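Task card 7
Instruction: Convert sequence to structure tokens.
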Amino acid sequence: MSASITPTEDFDPRKDSLIEYPSVFPIKVMGAMVDGFAQAMAQVALRFDPDFDVSTMELRPSKGGNYLGVTLLITATSREQLDDLYRALTSHPMVKIVL
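Output:
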């Protein structure tokens, strides 16, 4: 015997979030190991979080040294801000992957 669950009228999955705002939110970005990659990612982060602290960036080169992983610690203030930041990062020509 299974019970049927009826969603309430107030439930909207687009607005529902597990993140409490504001909060520090890590975003991992990977790109080719080229001059200026980390600085370019910092510039994108600063567009969406004016208080972004560049000194908190974590840089991790790949084993082969061909790629660089950058962790950005963003102060997330809304889902819209995070969505816009992800779109900006994923469309950046230097970026291969955003997590």
